[in-house]
Amino acid sequence: MNKAFAGIGLMLVMTALSSAQDSGKGRRPELPTELKESFERAKTIRFSGTRTVTVVRAGKVETHNEYVTKDGSNLRIEFATGSPYSGQIIIETDKNRRHYFPDKNEIREYPSFSKKQFEGFRSFSRGSKPGSMHFDTSTGGVIAGLRCTKYQLSDASNNPVAQVYIEPRSGMTVKRVIFDQTGNIAGSYEFVSLTLDPRIQPGAFKIFRKGATVIRPSDDLRKEAKELGIPALALPKASGYLLESVYVRDVKGSKVLVQSYGSDESRITVFMTKSILNASDLRRSNRGELVSYLRTLNGITIVLMGDQPEERLRTLSNQLSD
Fold first, then answer.
1. Structural domains of the chain, ranges and CATH numbers in brackets
2. Whose C-alpha in 21, 112, 209, 247 is 20 to 30 A from the C-alpha of 157?
């Protein structure tokens, strides 16, 4: 399995529910007041536990267990023996996210997601049409010994988009489910055991590994751009966006360099290729309505796609630099 999917539980954490806000196109679905309060409590929660993570790709179900320790914005994830990720460790703080791969003695370092742990449904609802999403609340039963409330985000036809199960007093999220557009589960995690307010070992949220190679997204960008023979254009930090991941994607027989950026409020994807492509060629199935802006520069096709107005994407495209 590609290392981009390692620690998929953490990636699902990053797609948590978010407080809905107004957009230029209308009001996004409002979070129930008790859910907002739970998220506020969860920002300072301490726990350790084991969760089962399930991912479905191409009809194949893949499952593994993760050992999770959290103290406020600090997060540590380890993987069970026998898992394809056994030996890997993920550390998340308010400064960065570091992912250790023992097979290559590498530490992958990314911008921190800690401030975005409660933003997640933004990716589903930010670009949605007014009134096209709504929340439902119901009893969630007992999970890992905690009695939970279930919150479900659904589309206008009442198809489920995502679910989150929360113990309301602590704000502890014990289960999360993401659905695909056919109504089937695309990914989930569920805690099977939990200890609230545990004693946490000093140094649990640091990685000390002498001799390990540290690799950042900017390193990936330079490497992949060089192999494709295109300039390593990127958005500067002054744009407000931080580079989170870089990979190469095949689109209609062409190699396309894909950069993912995040800010406190939105996400932007930058596509670059030597080929002539339309923005529609680059779209993948999604529930929101993403805006795109296309330009060419010295024979390179550049497409910016995100939940921002076209004029904003145009401005960002002009900030791309080597």
1. 27-196 (2.50.20.10), 216-319 (3.30.200.100)
2. 21
